[in-house]
Structure formats: structure tokens, C-alpha cells
Amino acid sequence: MFKFDDERFLETIETKEDFLTFLEWMAKDFWDDMDSWQNRDMDRYLRSIASWLEDSPQMSVKEGAKFWQSVAHMFYAGKIYE
Q1: pTM
Q2: Which value, in Å, is the radius of gyration of the alpha carbons in the chain?
Q3: Do 48 and 39 meet the contact criterion of CB atoms below 8 Å apart?
Q4: Is residue 29 within 8 Å of 22, Cβ to Cβ?
Q5: Cα first-last separation, the chain
Q6: pLDDT at position 1, please?
Q7: What is the distance between the alpha carbons of residues 61 and 38, in angstroms, rounded to a whole number?
Q8: Which of 7, 17, 41, 82 has the fewest CB atoms within 10 Å, measured from its CB?
Q9: What is the pLDDT of residues 45-55, one digit of tens each?
């Protein structure tokens, strides 16, 4: 198992539970190691995700439409879910 701060860890995420663990780590890491985050506000964070996706054509080849719908639902839920 890789450390969370090692990008290779992302390749080990295979289940919903793995993804939830990753999100929990991201939230904790934001507060524990904020200096390592390039985008510390919501606007910059979301725009950097969009830029990364634009620059990563392999993402659209690797995954289908349902994947992208799921990702969109997750980000939208972050707006409205309490």
C-alpha cells in the first residue's frame, strides 16, 4: 500500500470505500498540510480540476459517460448535501 501523499496511491482506488477513504484523507490533509495545496479556495480548486481535465485526454478515453455523470453528481452533491 502506498502512502496517501504518493500519487501512485490513486491507482489503488478500486471501490467506493477506497474513494471515501481518499476523500476523508483529502479533507484532513487540507487542514493538516495546507501549505502543500496550490488551490486553497473553492473557485481555484474547481478551476484547477477543470484545467487538469482539459489537459488530460486519457480521462475521456479511459472512462465512459456514466463515469462522468457520477463525478458530476458527486461535485454537485458537495454544493447541496448537508
Answers
A1: 0.76
A2: 14
A3: yes
A4: no
A5: 32
A6: 44
A7: 27
A8: 82
A9: 999 988 888 88
* 68 or 5, higher pLDDT: 68
How far apart are alpha carbons 44 and 41 in whole angstroms?
6
Residues in the chain: 82
Q: What angle do CA 68, 74, 77 make, to 5 degrees?
A: 140
Q: Show the cell assigned to 13.
A: 482506488
CB 4 within 8 A of CB 10: no
Tell me which residue has cell 501512485.
Answer: 8
Cβ neighbours of 18 (radius 10 Å):
13
Cα separation of 35 and 39, whole Å? Answer: 10
E strand spans, 1-82: none
